[in-house]
Specification:
The protein has a six-stranded antiparallel β-sheet, with no helix packed on it. The protein folds into three domains: about 25-145, 2-Layer Sandwich (Potassium Channel Kv1.1, Chain A), CATH 3.30.710.10; about 150-255, no CATH class; about 280-415, Jelly Rolls (Sandwich). The chain has helices spanning about 1-10, 10-15, 30-35, 65-70, 70-80, 95-105, 115-125, 130-140, 150-160, 160-175, 175-180, 190-195, 205-225, 230-235, 250-255, and strands spanning about 45-50, 55-60, 85-90, 265, 270, 280-285, 290-300, 305-315, 320-335, 340-350, 355-360, 370, 375-380, 385-390, 410-415. The chain has about 425 residues and is an alpha+beta fold. The chain contains 15 helices and 15 strands. Helix 13 (about 205-225) crosses helix 14 (about 230-235). About 35% of the residues are buried. One of its GO terms (biological process) is neurogenesis. Keywords: Cytoplasm. It comes from Leptonychotes weddellii (Weddell seal). This is BTB/POZ domain-containing protein 2.
């Protein structure tokens, strides 16, 4: 019987001659053994289908290793609603970022780079691996520059990383001019733009900052598939427009095209044909709240490109006191557009007081407007506050300008 048993069961020597792969013996430490299992089918008990479409990858893993390293994976595999599936889809995760997460859980090794750091940060947050989060944030801090500060600020706010966001803002404060000219500036979201404009420590003149904000509004119009018009630019800027500090600009800067964010109370809309040589159009108005008038919009020549000399004034009607004036000029292109002329300093206008606006022009016949309104209400695109103008005929030498017709179509102001 003993002989028969020996014939049925091979001895120890026979077993040692079997070609069995003993990988464990080649990995003397626990760390090496776990690292060996990373992205390996050996002992694998779950697969993740990571990513979407043609870029998706099937990645092997081990439930125990993942559960030890992440509370989220622990709940996924061992919680009250644990999954028993051996195939788990993760369409919102990038394969490279998921592999970086697994590499860290299996071996403590950090494998991130400029192209993968943001997606790895997202994945580390999703699966509650704070140590890997910290490595990602540290990597971003070391690579923070003026040309990527706005991009990183957006991501820091998205991923709720206040320390990184604070460093980005400090960098923008010190290098504002370089930061706003970087390509990533026009890609930021409105809330990030507002967070920057609210700061008192930006190292840049307001006129340059406003020019950058206008560029952002143009890009945002395109993102929202809106025509790039002044009205739509104001619309997409929303509350950000009120954060531009127009009083910090000089009148010349405002006149050079940077006043497009301020209010313009338009009284006349339909430019018509030639008018006699201009002398001194005048018009009375009052307003329901305190404002600061910075200039007027005037019509130009019907005879093509022309230079005009002009004196503009605001007069306190009852006392006939000149509150503000400027001897200046403007060049027109012959179109029926309005052309802005500005005071050297803003002129304060008080509520419910009568004022007379006057523009004495020297030059050829100009276009003029018709269908003027006696009452015009300008609504702030940011706050919704309404400024109500009432226009009246100004007796005397006014060159035919009245409420209904004339050559002063705009009063440019801010509140």
């Amino acid at each position: 019987a003993g002989g028969e048993r020996a014939a049925e069961e091979p001895g120890a020597a026979a077993l040692l001659r079997e070609p069995v792969y003993n990988w464990q013996a080649t990995k003397p430490t626990l760390k090496e053994r776990f690292a060996f299992l990373f992205n390996n089918e050996v002992l694998c008990d779950v697969h993740f289908l990571v990513g979407k479409g043609l870029g998706a990858q099937r990645i092997p893993a081990h439930r125990f290793v993942l559960a030890v390293g992440s509370a989220v994976f622990d709940a996924m595999f061992n919680g009250g609603m644990a999954t028993t599936s051996t195939e788990i889809e993760l369409p919102d995760v990038e394969p490279a970022a998921f592999l970086a997460l697994l590499k860290f859980l299996y071996s403590d090794e950090v494998q991130i780079g400029p192209e993968t750091v943001m997606t790895t940060l997202y994945t580390a947050k999703k699966y509650a691996v704070p140590a890997l989060e910290a490595h990602c944030v540290e990597f971003l801090k070391k690579n923070l520059r003026a040309d990527n500060a706005f991009m990183l600020l957006t991501q820091a706010r998205l991923f709720d990383e206040p320390q990184l966001a604070s460093l980005c803002l400090e960098n923008i404060d010190k290098n504002t001019a370089d930061a706003i000219t970087a390509e990533g500036f026009t890609d930021i979201d409105l809330d990030t733009l507002v967070a920057v404009l609210e700061r008192d420590t930006l190292g840049i003149r307001e006129v340059r900052l406003f020019s950058a904000v206008v560029r952002w509004s143009e890009a945002e119009c395109q993102r929202q598939q809106l025509p790039v018009t002044p009205e739509n630019k104001r619309k997409v800027l929303g509350k950000a427009l009120a954060l531009i500090r127009f009083p910090l600009m000089t009148i010349e800067e405002f006149a050079a095209g940077n006043g497009q964010g301020a209010g313009a109370a338009r009284r006349e809309h339909d430019p018509q044909g030639p008018q006699v040589h201009l002398v001194c159009p005048r018009l009375r108005f009052s307003v329901n709240k305190r404002i600061f008038v910075v200039g007027f919009g005037l019509y130009g020549s019907i005879h093509g490109p022309t230079d005009y000399q002009v004196n503009i004034q605001i007069i306190h009607t009852d006392s006939n006191t000149v509150l503000g004036q400027n001897d200046t000029g403007f060049s027109c292109d012959g179109s029926a557009s309005t052309f802005r002329v500005m005071f050297k300093e803003p002129v304060e206008v008080l509520p419910n007081v009568n004022y007379t606006v006057c523009a004495t022009l020297k030059g050829p016949d100009s276009h003029y407007g018709t269908k003027g309104l006696r009452k015009v209400t300008h609504e702030s695109p940011t706050t919704g506050a309404k400024t109500c103008f009432t226009f009246c005929y100004a007796a005397g030498n006014n060159n035919g300008t009245s409420v209904e017709d004339g050559q002063i179509p705009e009063v440019i102001f801010y509140t």
